Structures are given as C-alpha cells and as structure tokens.
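seq:
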Amino acid sequence: MIEFKADKVLASGISKEIKAEIEVPGDKSISHRAVMLGSLAAGKSYLSNLSLSGDNSATVAAFRKLGVRIEKQKLSGTGKDFLIKGVGLRGLKEPVSVINTANSGTLTRLIAGILAGNDFFSVLSGDKYLNSRPMKRIIEPLSLMGAKITGRNGGNYPPLAVSGGGLKSIFYEVPVPSAQVKSCIILAALFAQGDTVIYEKKATRDHTENLLKFQGYALKVETPSIGGSLISVKGRAGNGPELKPLDINIPGDFSSAAFFIALGILSEGAEITVKNVILNEKRTGLLKVLEMMGADVKTNVTGTVPEKTGNVKARYSRSRLNGISVPREIVSDMIDEFPIFSVIASFSEGKTIVSGAQELRVKESDRIKTVVLNLKKAGIDVKESEDGFEINGRPDLIKHNSNGVINPKTEGLTKLNSYGDHRIAMSMIIMGLVLKNRKLEIGDTGCINTSFPEFFDILSKILPFKVSASKNKF
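struct:
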C-alpha cells in the first residue's frame, strides 16, 4: 500500500497478485534530444509521446527562450503531441535571461554544446542539486574547440557562462564512458569548421547519433579494431545542408519501465508487461544482468526506426534469483538502473558485486552512497566501495525482521531518504511495496517529478490505491 504525508511516501507490502499491461511515458533521453534537434531543424517537427517530466519541461522552456516556437497539439488525441517550428542551425536567438536547466544534467551538458556553437552570450543554471554536478568534463572539449566557458570553482560547477561561436574541429577521446559528454561534442561539432572525430573506449547510448542519421545528417559511426566507437561529424560552419525536421513517436522510457520490471520480478505471483518501450542495447544492460541472475524476463521487438522498440514481460522469480558480479562492460549500459537493481539484488540468493561504476558518484546524488545508506537502514548487508557496492542478498527479508533496524516504538517504520534523487526515491518505494514485515517512509519524494510524474498514476492502476501525482505542465 501507499500513503502520502506532505513530501513523504509510506510504502508497505502489497498482498494481491499483480497481473497488468502498462505503458510508460516517452523516453526522457530521446525527448531531450528530439526537442533540441527539432529546434535546430529547418521546418516543422512533430513529436508524439514526448516525456512530460520536469527535466523535459525545462528543455522545452530553454529552447522557447532561445526563440523557438514549440506548441502543444492534439494531433492524435493523446494531448501529448508537440509541434516545433525549427529555426535552423543559425536561427537561435541570444537569451535575455538565465536559462534554467532545473535538475537536468542531460539538458545542461547537451545545450552547452549547442550554445558553444552560437555567436552570443548565455548563462546556464539549475537547482542546488544540478549546480553541484561536475561540468569540467564538457568544458574541456568545448574549450579545445574554441568556446569560452566559465563557471564556479574554476569552471567545474554551474552556473556556466558561455560565449560561443567560431568553433574548430577536434579529435577527442572521451576519458570516461558518458553519452552526455559525447553528445555535447557532437552537437557543438554541427557548428564547427571541419570534421570532428570522437573516440570512446566503451560505446555508450547512441540516441543523438540515431536521431541525426534519421534527419539525414552527415555523421559516421565506426567500430575500430581496438573496440569502442569512433564518431565523425561533418561541421556545417555556415555551409552545407540543414537538419531535416523530425516526425516521430517517442518510445517508452526503459529507465521508467525498470521499476515495474523489478516489481514484476519481486512481487509474489506477479506478471507485468511494459509495452512500447525502447530496447536499444545501450540502454538495456539491466535485462542482460537479470538474465544472468535467473529472472523470468522476456522481450519481443515491434519496431526498429529510429530506435529499437518492443515489449518487456516480467514474471515473479524472486525465489530463483542468484547474486552475481556485474560485468564491467555492461555497467554503462545500465548506469541509470543501479538504484532499482540494488533492490533486486537485495532479495537475491548470495552476493552481488558492482564495480567500475564510479560514474554513480556524480549523478543527481552520490548514488553509491545513497543506495548503501538506504539499504542498510532497510536491513540489508551492503558494503560501499570507491566504484560500487557489494550486497549480500536476503531472500528471507520478506518474512523476517532484521535485528537492530526496526524500532518497536514506530511499529516497524523504517525511515529512508531520497536525497533529492528521483531514482533513489522510486527504487525505495518499490522496495517498500515488496516488503511485508515493515513500512518504509521515504522522504523528499517530490523529486520524482524530475523524470516520472506519472509514476504514482501507473501504480494506482495496478495496486489497491488511488492517487494522482502532480504533473508538470508545458
């Protein structure tokens, strides 16, 4: 069950078997990029199933501030369709005030690449969580291309002041696997003189490349003999073809689907199918890991352009889950799913080890630390390492209380905190729904609107409670 108290959620074990087919909102990563590339296209773009999250709302607001007309339509009766009147690669206008990037690292890092290519001044700033996230990783390559960017603490943190224009091409090896850094450079390269080449040792999510190819842009992606990915971008720099407009239906967000996949696996007797969700291999590392653990999860592909899309069916399989060592090569393909994965691992038999995931330290929270703190309070034997964590699973936690954790004075209430991180908040709520021996109180849950304002609405359709979460409006 779910109870609400101010900005806190109280979650306790559900008793009925769940049999449900659901759809989740449009993919957040693709929604960001579709708004950006539609704005830079020459002509009208139509986007269906655009994410209505707080992060994506900030992206729409940012490009409206840059002079792009973005209008909400009702083209298919969903009320979620948008028309973007693209201004072309040289049509953005200098903003008259600070661009608010809210809680979105994706928006901040990607739009910085676009602003670096435009000959005007702009400032980017977000909330207190966003402004504590490192930005040197994008400032370094953009500065090499000729942009002038300053920020707090020597340019490492927002607010960021960007003086753009006059970019030159570079060869750049991305030091850590990061689709945000790669995409930032790709977007800046659209405005540069010459051909920019980017090398990543481990290929990361390729939504930016897929959309640009869909728009007919001169972009080349190769797999060199040494592995990884080599991306070549032909700079326009005032010449050459414009981007073609987009007309796409954005598939469901896999990171949002992951919470319901976990619920299907862990809730006794459950069977949950998530329809029309993105199945890009660079996003679905969680599915590979779940297969290794013995989970009953199946997929079927229904579409491939511009992204692979399909359905995921998750069935109850908690009794057969085994702990594993997550292969390092899969880490970047499931980087956003580690909070909910930690919940699944908590109920698995044996030890689960995560390493090579230091990128979790610089997400909306330090996700290694916040996962460990919350799981310990919930009675899980978990140890923190510099680049991951180790969980000794407790399949019996469903039935038995943990010594020293439950306070009898609060009748089995265990207090957790999201630390302002939407994925931590939702992961701990799912954990509370699976536990039957206590109630979890998760604080600071308003952050869920950052990525998934429909989270509680979908839960209300498959669980015995009704509630409407507040939604961000465009």
